[in-house]
Amino acid sequence: MKKVIIIRDQFAKDKIEAYVDDVCKYLAEQFDVFPENAQIYHNQISEQTNITPKTEADIERLKQLDGVFWVVIHPAWWMVVFWVVTAVMAAYSVYMIATMPKQNGQGSVGSSNNELANRSNKARVKSRIPDIFGTVLSFPDLIAEIYTYYENGIEIEECLMVIGRGYYDVHECKDGDTAIEGIEGASISVYDPNVSITSNTTIYRTGTAFTTAPRAVRKSDAINGQSLVQPNDLSLESSSLYFMTGGVIRSTANIDFTTYFKVGDGIAITGAAFGINDASLSGTAVLTPDFKVIVQSSVDIEAYDAYKGLLLNGALFEYIVEETTIDPETEESTTVVVERATRDASGQYEVSSVTRIQSGSIYTYTIQLSNPKQVNYSWNDISENQTISAGITLNLNANSMTLDDIYSISAISSTQITLANAATVNAEWLKLPTMFNGSTQGRQANVDLEIVANKWVGWFNLDFDQATQAVFNVYAPQGMYATTDSGGEREAGCTITVQYQMLDENKNPVGEIVTREWEIWNKTKSSFGRTARYDLPSKGSFRFRLAKTYAKQNNRPVTEVKIKSVYATYASSKRNYPDVTVLRLKTVATDGALSVKERKLNCLVTRKLKTDGTGALVATRDAGQALINMALDQYVGRRSSSELDIAQIKSEIQKVKNYFGSDVATEFNYTFDDDNLSFEEMAGMVASACFCETYRYGNKLRMKFEGPQDNSVLLFNHRNKVPGSEKRTFSIGIDKDYDGVELEYTSPDDDLKTTYSIPEDGSARNPLKITTSGIRNHAVAKTRAWREWNKLLYQNLSCEFDALDESNLLVRNDRILVADNTELKTRDGQVEYVDGLTLKLSQFIEDPYSKQFGNVEIMEGKTYYIYLQMQNATIDMISCVAGNEPDEVILSRAPLQSLVIDEDRYIKTTYLLVEAQEADKQAFLLTEASPNDEMTNKLTCINYDSRYYEKDKAFI
């Protein structure tokens, strides 16, 4: 048998006991509907033994248990869950914890809105849609694949982005620091939720309107900028080959050249290097702003000063841009990193000189480059010495000769090949007569001779089941032109062959291979691109490959072509995006640039919220409106209006405004981007940004402003404390030896993170560091920082004790009165009887022999006060004198409310008796409340001091 004990009123002594076989069946007989505030405990009453079922599985587990089952029906107010109060918080302030940005969960990517630097537009797959409140500099998220193509040789990029959930006022849009309106060719349109993105109904627009839906695209990951070249088929490899003046190739071996080549063949020579070899200095080097590469090595390089070329591979360095701002009020300068990126200085450079210094066995080589910015733009970002770890090769020694290049055969025999215009193709042939007496015979080199042939890039699969079109983007990084004999320029060109074939459901090729010829001709030294679009034979995935099948050969043409990107696309029918504000952006590359730079579109926006959660949409930064709308949001708070005390929240916000004399103290400006952040945490962040706390009263969410408090809300003495639980700690000096405060917040000037320090000269060496969320105002940040510092400065007493169940009515930062029950004698208790202005107390307050109120000596000319706990959660302080009996006092006036003295009441009016000069010494500020069991809470307090708030009016 199982024992069930039902307590219908936890404050009454009545209870029902029964022995049953089936607990669930018995409870169904006792209650028509199981009470909302009832809890079931197993064997004993504690939070750890709470087995109240919430799911069917919980019910089945309840049926399997044996022992004693306690069913306690708590009053509604007991169900208050102090989800802010019960958090473990440092005594100085809840703000440091509640306003800290939370770390995103594993796999979740945070919004650039909250990043310190390098903010950009990015795709945040499977991450939370930005939930913006107040005014924020938004870096919209990409919600579709970026689609790029070329028009008139210039790259065009189209993006579809989301600003965030809900509606917004868009004040301005910029690309980096430049207004969109000032960027040639740029277009942007911003749309309210559920408005067609092809309509003219926009909330912000610059440039041309978007009249067609963006194409759905899938980009090939296999394309990484491969070059389309005329590659070579290896025909002959031999170390017996040697070269003679006039473009002649011979062999010391018995080789018949006519079996490999014929007149008119294109021939590629590789490995034909003679003389001083390239020197490798791979390792660590220093790049200097004056175009030097400094390398230390133990290698003694032969003819080091004759090298005219330098090859760097993997020359990566970190590029950092810092910005210093000066606060106009404090003249304090703040330096922040606004950009951090990796640059690559790799390339083949021209060397003007090489010098070296020897120290012991170490040689320091200083390599002076000539016009390196023309080879690699990254040299523009080297404003100070940069250390790299890279492949470093000195080449093109003046005492060496390299004949590698592509030539045409003008004559051939079994023993000799004659190249057409060899010295014109490669001027290194002119070194043969002087350096090697006209022949390299006897100088061994492993040389390859290759016939020029077509080479494909691909096949590559591109999976996109809905694809109806293939899009190919190529670009010519050096332009495309040919140089005439007179030094002029003329048009050059090439033919690119594209092939594609459909794939079946198993990704196997099916159907015919479609071949397209794509001719590109131009006369320009500037980079440009081209786009080709081909309709697919059917809908679905496909494979593709590309090759350069022809290129102009004479007049020294420049026809290098690289593959930029390949897309599978189809015409999307999606026009509307409910519940989110989206934007479309079209940008173009700058004239002569290779492509569109990194996307840094940012919009200064203010969230529109429904007034009181149900009214008209209004752009607002009000923290109270943010809390109300969050709570009513079906995806965030999931509360109903009956669970919000809207009037109280608005009243408390107005109280903050009235206290500071400004609306800025009640602003909340932040982007919630973490899908693991609970509503309780979010609510705490909103409230703390405006100097408030959130709490529940009954089942309603409320807000409480922390400010100076003249009166205490509850009195605790030995009557409502657990005996022996009180501990008091006196401190000398400041907690953890903090010597200042550093508070991080968002600057309204540039919407970057900035720091306010106390002392303002930044001299603190061990400051308390606080990171806030939602503060975007210098004055508010300074006020917050000074509150934190003053609490460190003036806190000298902490008190901890276990309080009875009336402590459930408290909220963090409530001012309370606490009798010192660590002393042997007491001067507190409860009122037993009232006779006019005479109170009979539970304790003797006068010793007939010592004439003392407990341990307070009665002296003429001094004033004494008795603190009385009122029924409405307030305390009445009244001056008094000793009565006619040792346990009586006479009040100077009547209490504000009737005192509770009836014998049938669970709690009577409690009191605390103190001398006038000690009145304030018993006031404490509640910093933490955590439940111990059903009837008690552990309270942690610090001494109340009005100086905590002495700087509140100094800045706002």
TrEMBL record:
Recorded superkingdom: Bacteria
UniProt keyword Membrane present: yes
Swiss-Prot/TrEMBL keywords: Membrane, Transmembrane, Transmembrane helix
Entry's transmembrane regions: 68-95
Name assigned to this protein: Tip attachment protein J domain-containing protein
